[in-house]
Amino acid sequence: MRIYECADERAMSRRAAGIIASQVILKPECVLGLATGSTPVGAYQNLVEWYKNGDLSFAGVKTVNLDEYLGLAPTHDQSYRYFMQQNLFDHIDVKPENTHVLNGLAEDPAAECAAYDEMIASLGGIDLQLLGMGHNGHIAFNEPGDDFGLGTHVVTLSERTIDANQRFFASRDDVPRHALSMGIRSIMGASKILIVVSGEAKAESLARAVAGPVTNAVPASVLQLHPDVTLVADSAALSVLKREGGLK
Ligand code: F6R
Q: With DSSP H G I counted as helix, E B as strand and the rest as coil, what are the percentages for the chain, rounded to 5?
């Protein structure tokens, strides 16, 4: 695992955007795996800026997103499709038909998940998968204890994730209890992985993920088994790993 320590979240975002931009420049027809959440927002802002400056084009890029809440329409302001439109897709030249987000209103969620894995395979797989990490070490909606062998599947959100996501909804009761999510197997199938982590609140989980045993108790620890992972994190997120001597 390659680890880049950045002074703060702003520097982390710029570094992560640079890695995504390099992928797009080197292979303009690439498949990008994308994430939602607060951590990648700054990276998306940089990409939009570089597109507007004429330094980057997404005209040939295809995107696949990690996850979506079950039961939310694409137009719901907390759906991940809506998030992607607002934070990236509406501001760059990616073709709408080349952006893929799981359908939260699918009548048959299991069939939607199976079709999503087939769609990713038909695109030739993911060149670069961007990930955030939850406070409990989750990646996408793969929660502690989940099976590493799963492809895209329906998940039940943990109480901790519901708590963490509550801030985006009017009340805790409004947070969906289920989601559709790429599984660890789908994520590990990407050629390259870029994970962005910021803030001291995630430092303990990040240390476990990078230097602890590979265990489904810390889903991000599975990334130790992937041959091409880049971690871009701010110093606060790396504080525990550094204290324990895990950052060379
Ligand atoms: C988002 C996703 C989640 C987030 C994670 C961190 O598509 O799959 O796993 O990456 O919950 O979220 P933030 O960045 O908001 O702390």
A: 40, 20, 40
